[in-house]
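Can't paste images in this forum, so I'm doing it all in text. The chain is below; anyone willing to post the predicted C-alpha cells underneath?
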Amino acid sequence: MAMNKHRLMSIFRFDTIRGRIRAYTIAIVCIPITIAALFFIFFQQERLIENEKKQLAEILGQNKNTIKAYVDVCFQDVLFLTKVIKAHRSDMESAAKEFSDYDESHTGISAAVFVNAQGISEIDSMGKPGLYGGDRYYFKQAMMGLSAITTGIKGRVSGKPVCMFSMPVTNQAGEFDGVVFLSILVGELDAWLHGSFVPDKQGLILCDAQGNILAPHRAVASNADDAARQIPLQLMQLGEAGQIFVNDQGVRMLGASVAVGHGGWRLVYFRSVDEILAGYRWLTIFVGLGSLCAVLFMMPLMLRFCRSIEAPLEELTAYALELRKNNYEATGQLCDQKNMPSELRILFDAFTVMSFRVARQIKKAEAVSLKDALTGLHNRRFLQAMGTEFLKKTHSAGQQCACLMLDIDHFKSINDTFGHNVGDMVLQHTARIINASVRSADLLVRHGGEEFVVLVACKDARQGEELAHRIRHAVAAHPLLSDGNELSVTISIGVAVCADMANMVESPESAEAALAVMLIRADKALYAAKEAGRDAVVVAA
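Text version of the structure:
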C-alpha cells in the first residue's frame, strides 16, 4: 500500500516534467468535462423550473376561466330568481314554487332563498322560511345595492360549509325590497375546479380574499381547523409568473396565483421543488456517470499521450546521467530517435555532438598528459598509471618483470658545452635508439630529465641484464650528428627484477608497492653504475 502511494505521488510530483505533463493533461481533459456536466445540470434544472412555471400559468389560466364561468352561471341564476320575485311579488306561493323547482333541477344547491327588506326569509327552497338574515354580510351588501359572494360560513339549516351568491331585489319604485341568494355547497366547487386536466390536483386551491380555502372540499371539511382552512398570505401574493419560496416547514416550493375577478377570489397553485426535480436527479446521476465514463475512456489516451512525451525525456535523462558519470561513449542506443518528437531529437543530437567533442578533447588531453612532448615517449604519469597493470600482466603470463633505469652520461656537460638545443637533440636521439631496441610489448617512458625507464617481461635477471647491454651498446654505436660533427653519447643502466611477484601483485596497493620498490632498487643500481665509471650496467642485488 505504502509503495503504491509512493509511486502515485512520484507520478504526480509537480517538480518533475513527468508530473506536470500528467497533471496538466488530466486537468485539460477533466476540467472541461466537469464544467460541461455542471453547466448542463444547472441549465437543465433551470429549464425544468421554467417549464414548470409555464405549466403553472397554463393550469391557472384554464381553471381561472372555468371558475369565472361557474360564478357567472351562479349570478345568472340569482338574476333569474330576482326576476321571479319581481314577477310574483304579489303571489309569493308561485314564487316559492319556482324556487323549489329550481332547487330540484340543480345539483349542488343547498338552498335558494328570498329575504325581505326586514331581514326575514320569505322563501326558502329547504322549506324553512322565517329565519332572520338581516345580520348577514350578503344582506348588508344588498341594502347598498351590491351583489356579493359570501364565503367562510356554514348554512344555518344544512350546517355544511357553503358559498352564497346574492343579489338585491328592488320594487317598481326602485326601492330596496330584499335580497335573493343561492347557497352553494363548497363541494360543488371541486367539480368545477378540476373540470380541466391538472397534473397535480392537490396543489390547486381556490380561496377567497381573506385566504379561506373554498376548494378542494377536503381542505374545508367541517372538522378542519382554522389553519387548515386558510392559505398563507405569502402564497396569495405570488404572481402569475411563478416564484420559488420556502414554506413554514422549510420546504422549497414553486407557486403562483391569479385573481379570478369575483369577490377577490384567487386561484393558487404550488408544488414542491423536490417533486419537480425528482426526474432531474436521475438525469444528474446519468450525466455524472456519463462524465465519469468519458474521463475513464480518455484516461488511456491521456496516458498514452503522456508516455509519448515522457519516454524520450526519460531516455534523454538517462543519457545525461551517463554523461555526468563521464561515460561519453554512451550514444543513441539509449534513445529511440524514431518515435522522438523533433524538438527532443534536436536536443538529443546536441547532446551527442557535445559528448563526442568532450570525449575527443578528453582523449587528447589524456594523451598529452601521458606523453613527453620532447621525445614522444610516455612520461612518468603513464608509468604510474600503467606500471602496476604491466606487473599484473607479466605475473599472469608466468614471467618476471625487470626494470631498467637509464641515464645519459655527462648530460649536464653537453648542455653547458653545446647548449640546450643540442641537449634536446641528444634526448630525442637517445630515445629513438632505446625505443628501437625494446619490444613493442615493453613499457618505455621518459622518467624525467635525462632518465629513461624500461619495464620488460623476462625469465630472469640475466635476460634483463642482456637487454640493458644491447641498449647501452646501441647508444654508444650511434653517435649524434650535429652540424657535421659527431657527438658520442653513452648511458648508464641500473637493472632490478621484481622479487616475490606472487605476493606483491595480489591487490592494487601491493602492486603499487612492488613497482615503487623495483624503481628504488633500479635507481640504486644506476647510481652504482655511475660510480663504477659510467657507460656500464649494474644489476641490483
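Residues 79-273 form a domain with the Beta-Lactamase fold (CATH 3.30.450.20). The longest strand covers residues 161-170.
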